[in-house]
Automatic annotation (TrEMBL):
It comes from the Bacteria. This is MFS transporter. One of its GO terms (biological process) is response to antibiotic. GO terms for molecular function: transmembrane transporter activity. GO terms for cellular component: plasma membrane. The chain crosses the membrane at residues 28-50, 62-81, 93-111, 123-143, 155-175, 181-201, 213-233, 245-262, 282-302, 314-335, 347-365, 371-390, 411-432, 452-471. Residues 27-475 form the Major facilitator superfamily (MFS) profile domain. PROSITE patterns: MFS, SUGAR_TRANSPORT_1. Its main location: membrane. It is a multi-pass membrane protein. InterPro entries: MFS (IPR011701), MFS_dom (IPR020846), MFS_trans_sf (IPR036259), Sugar_transporter_CS (IPR005829). The keyword Nuclease does not apply. Keywords: Antibiotic resistance, Cell membrane, Membrane, Transmembrane, Transmembrane helix, Transport.
Length: 499
């Protein structure tokens, strides 16, 4: 299919030695389809929530779990999903999880009760927690590091933006007929991708040199992530300073501490902690949290503003967001070549700067906005930021990682994305709720949104500052390689590497 990734001792193949065959394109399209479905599913369900509540007679607290159930399964199991792909084979894990995703989509569109719908959403999140790191690691082990991988990853992330944008528009259209169509639509697409994947995806061997399965690490890591996401999602309702929330956070801290101790002693850890010795890797993980967390908070507030205050329809709101998604879809395929020239830190820094400006400009909104003059500039700046930041974060996180740890790093990156989204959305919600006016006039409600938008801008600014720490003068040697054998780690410890 393509030249395999070189061993650390051999030179990397040049772009001219690897040919983009039809089979290679087919492989990439199958993986892109799964990423497209993940983004499509997330964006479609939001618009359908009011119709779901009416049809199934769900309370607000129950309805939130239609969204939170997916986040819980996805964010809580990504670390396990990534390492499982490394150990059991990326192709096998990807295809099985994609089949489960299709089945859960079908069931979600047919159920007649809230608990069953929430259960189907949890299963969909769980399956996405396995397809996302497995798919990303298939790309990074199929395409050699450098221009080819950068191009593949830019196409891959473009499909996520396209899926999200199409989901916003399709949800507005499909919900007019029935909310069930928004649940059912991913099923046939997933089945087609599954059939194509059985033919096209390269077979991957299981990891041979691991020292058994890290069962204690898997249990502790999964439990800590599930409890963290659950606590953050529930905190705005239970109260951030309530005994329940504080005890849950304490339990998370204990679980994570024990998890770290177990991983340091495990011969085959779920997460090799040496990966986090790389400054570029840490910046990628923190950047992913800031990037997605700020955007999810912004989208939440902007949607409330457009629908609740301006009275726009679901479709009208979706079309307002469309320029950002369209800009990403058009430009992201070019990011690979830009990364080759300027490097990921510069692109991420520029993207975060654009994002901050876009959020600050949105603070100008009022109760009678001129879309082209007030909202559209923010959408275009945020779209340009997403086009630069998202692919660059994926490239930076997976560069320099050995094949047998690509799933682990992919799971770690996706966990950062989901946990960042859950945490900062909860924070923004808490800030807005705390400032809710006693007299809910439209102007007073809009004023209560502004502190939340300020928090969103501050989170993006933090991502910008974190990225700036990686912008330095020309290095005398490449940045640290984050995935080495245990023997190489010991040698690297004796030779300090500037990052």
């Amino acid at each position: 299919m393509t030249t395999p990734l070189p061993s650390p001792a051999s030179p990397a193949p040049s772009a001219s030695t690897v040919r983009w065959t039809p089979r290679l394109w087919g492989t990439l399209l199958v993986l892109c389809a799964a990423m497209f479905l993940d983004a499509l599913d997330v964006s479609m369900v939001g618009v359908a929530l009011p119709s779901i509540a009416t049809d199934l007679d769900l309370s607000t607290s129950t309805l939130q779990w239609v969204v939170s159930g997916y986040i819980l399964g996805y964010g809580g199991l990504l670390l396990l999903g990534g390492r499982t792909a490394d150990l059991l084979g990326r192709r096998q894990v990807f295809l099985v999880a994609l089949g489960v995703f299709a089945l859960a989509s079908l069931l979600g569109g047919l159920v007649d009760s809230g608990p069953l719908l929430i259960a189907s959403r949890f299963v969909k999140g769980l399956s996405a927690a396995f397809t996302a790191p497995a798919g990303l690691s298939i790309i990074t082990t199929t395409f050699p590091e450098g221009p080819l991988r950068n191009r593949a990853l830019s196409i891959y992330t473009t499909c996520a933006a396209t899926g999200f944008s199409m989901g916003l528009v399709l949800s507005g259209l499909l919900t007019e007929a029935s909310w069930r169509l928004t649940m059912l639509l991913p099923a046939p697409i997933a089945l087609l991708a599954l059939a194509a994947g059985l033919k096209l995806l390269p077979r991957s061997a299981r990891e041979r040199d691991h020292n058994g399965y890290d069962v204690p690490g898997a249990i502790l890591g999964t439990a800590s992530m599930l409890l963290l996401v659950y606590t953050v999602v529930q905190a705005p309702e239970a109260g951030w300073t309530s005994a329940r929330t504080l005890l849950s956070f304490l339990a998370v801290a204990v679980l994570l501490t024990v998890f770290v101790l177990v991983e340091r002693r495990s011969p085959g850890p779920l997460i090799r902690l040496g990966v986090l010795r790389s400054g570029s890797q840490i910046r990628a993980q923190l950047g992913a949290m800031a990037f997605f967390g700020s955007y999810v908070g912004f989208q939440f507030l902007a949607t409330l503003y457009m629908q609740s205050l301006l009275g726009w329809s679901a479709l009208h709101t979706a079309l307002a967001f469309l320029p950002a998604g369209a800009l990403v879809a058009v430009s992201s395929t070019k990011v690979g070549a830009i990364v080759d020239r300027f490097g990921t830190p510069r692109l991420i820094a520029v993207g975060f700067a654009l994002m901050v400006v876009g959020y600050v400009l949105f603070l100008r909104v009022d109760l009678d906005p001129v879309y082209a003059a007030v909202i559209l500039p923010s959408m275009l700046l945020i779209g340009a930021a997403c086009a630069l930041v998202f692919p660059s974060l994926n490239i930076q996180a997976t560069n320099g990682v050995d094949d047998h740890e690509q799933g682990m790093v992919s799971g770690l990156l996706n966990t950062s994305v989901q946990v960042g989204g859950a945490i900062f959305l909860a924070v923004v919600t808490a800030v807005v709720t705390a400032g809710a006016p006693a007299d809910p006039t439209p102007q007073a409600v809009l004023d209560s949104y502004r502190p939340g938008l300020t928090v969103v801008a501050c989170v993006a600014a933090a991502g910008f500052l974190i990225t700036l720490t990686g912008l330095r003068t020309r290095r005398t040697r490449p940045s640290v390689v984050v995935a080495q054998s245990t023997l190489r780690e010991a040698e690297a410890d004796r030779v300090p590497v500037r990052d």
